[in-house]
Fold:
Amino acid sequence: GHLGWILSTSSISASYRLIYFLVYSITSGSLIILLHILNLYNIKQFPSFQTITSKSSLSISILLLSLGGLPPLLGFAPKLIVMLTLINHSHLAIIIPLILGSTINLSYYLVIVFNTLISSSAFSTFTFQQNQYISPSFVILTTIPLLIILFIIQ
Structure:
């Protein structure tokens, strides 16, 4: 999982390891705090989103997909940085198991998100209104990875 990504950069770059750890910590911490606020302590409680607002269930879904490394969310940027660094240092044999593990993790997170969305009454009434407030965390989770990638490419 995430430890493999962090350890794969241990001999290459301490700064990339720190970036990955910080992004992982921020995403995991946000998800843990949100789940604690919503009193969701067990995976069996996820389909029971009837009492949770659509913004909360959307936030949980985005955080889970970000943890899985789905582009263009925040969790993808450090994985891309690590992949590009490993390719530049000709460590191709390390990249394949990391990508396969991430794919398995992402599929697990997608099953949770899809089951939650299908059984959620919050999403059946979820609509975007023209003047609806978009939370800063949503903007950060979606735009920061693109800025990081642009910074690395230049």
The longest helix spans residues 92-119. The helical segments are 2-8, 14-37, 54-68, 76-88, 92-119, 121-124, 136-153. The CA atoms of residues 29 and 133 lie 23 Å apart. The radius of gyration is 17 Å.
